[in-house]
Amino acid sequence: MTLQLPVDQIDVYVLTNPEALYRTSSYYDELHVTNTVVRVRSQDTYGVGGAISWTEGGVDVALGNAIRHVAPSILGKDAVNREALYKIMANRCASMIPLSVAPLDIALWDLTAKAADLPLYQLLGGAKRSIPAYASTPFFFTIDEYLEKVAEYLDAGYRAIKFHTWCIPDKDLVLVDEMAKAFGDRDVTWMLDVEGRYDRTEALRVGKRLQELGYLWFEAPLGDSDLEGYQWLRRKLDIEIIPAGNEILSGGLIAQGISREAWDHLRVDATLAGGITGTRHIMSLAKAHGMQVELQSWGYSLSQAANLSLMLGMGNCRFFEQALPIEPMEYAATNPLRIDEEGNIVASDTPGLGVDMDWERVEREALFSYSLTERDL
Questions:
Q1: Element containing residue 26 per DSSP (H, E)
Q2: Of 237, 279, 295, which Cα lies nearest the Cα of 262?
Q3: CATH number given to 6-117+359-376
Q4: Mind giving me the DSSP string for 257-303?
Q5: 293-332 as b/e, with b when 16 or more CB fall inside 10 Å?
Q6: Which residues of 95-132 are buried (b: 16+ CB within 10 A; e: fewer)?
Q7: What does the pLDDT look like over 286-343, one tens digit per residue?
């Protein structure tokens, strides 16, 4: 019998945890992290997806409003036909595409996996069941804070650390040298993310030092769009170079970067790049070129789960990014993701994403919400 899942209703909720305030460089004020949650209903079941936005100065409701202009295009259609629905949504005359497509697409995949009684990572291919996690630090104001927190992260079981820093070369170099002095005898994988804030000369200077210290990768040394700069930098360094993954989100533009040999590996986020479907296309492109896609999973639990499903399903990703502190990102979620004693994230056997929401709390605490049915068209 053919599986059919007509989309009957779409619910959209904009939420935030007042404690989800993060800094990722000295250039930013505290970032408010907003969680835009979508529930796609079909008959007696539903799928859920979420996407984050991070903004200075307050909560972001733009994404929730943008989804209002994309969601009607899939009402009444069969959720099983996800590629067809993705094409419909991605070609709407609406704002914030592909971001406004992402939570809808993720919810369609969650819905289909639940109906098939499969964890989503298995529906996506089931390449592996677990993945090492790295502790993704916030920005701290002092070296002493970094030293204290890194010790805590290592004691908690993380075996890889990625720094968010001042993004000022002189200060960042002091940090990596102090970390080497304090933890150089530990078996730790290190990465540095400087949010695209360096110029080419600064990136080369810091990259050479990271090479000497054995860092695995240098993330976002330049702005994502500076393909010539990345190409130049890669030719001068042996350390792996990857982009931030926040700006170049289409397969066509990424293909241009690959052809220029701009990066060693790719980086995107499923909640930015059009959801599971759009990111799956990018990961397949990378796989054809022998490249990893080091997915972002920095965000609330639903965003984490979507990216994790792709990591495990597709297989060409080496690490799960765990934003710390972790507790604010677990807001209103059930079954959030935590590392095991080996420092790994292990897949849930629950059908779908493996993460759901406390819907009573969502309904109660949403900053705004709306529902759409075919009657509203």
A1: none
A2: 237
A3: 3.30.390.10
A4: HHHTT--SSB---TTTTTHHHHHHHHHHHHHHTT--B-----SSHHH
A5: bbbbbbbbbbbbbbbbbbbbbbbbbbbbbbbbebebbbbb
A6: ebbbbbbbbbbbbbbbbbbbbbebbbbbbbebbeebbb
A7: 999 999 999 999 999 999 999 999 999 999 999 999 999 999 999 999 999 999 999 9
pLDDT in tens, 112-134: 999 999 999 999 999 999 999 99
**Region label for 21, one of left (φ > 0), alpha (ψ between -120 and 50) or beta (otherwise):** beta
- Separation of first and last alpha carbons in the chain: 30
Q: How far apart are CA 148 and CA 153, in angstroms?
A: 9
Query: Locate tokens 């819907």: which residue?
Result: 359
Q: Which residues 6+ apart lie within 8 Å of 345 measured at CB? A: 130, 131, 132, 133, 308, 320, 322, 337, 338, 339
| Closest C-alpha to 337, from 325, 352, 326 | 326
> With contact defined as beta carbons under 8 Å apart, do 325 and 142 qualify?
no
Location of structure tokens 């979620």: 333
Q: Does 122-346 carry CATH code 3.10.450.50?
A: no
Tokens of 272: 């930015």
Please report, for the chain, the start and end positions of each structural domain, with discontinuous segments joined by +: 6-117+359-376, 122-346
On the question of a common fold for 6-117+359-376 and 122-346, the answer reads no
Joined tokens for residue 40:
């796609």
Q: State how far the Cα of 111 lies from the Cα of 174, in Å rounded to an integer.
A: 48
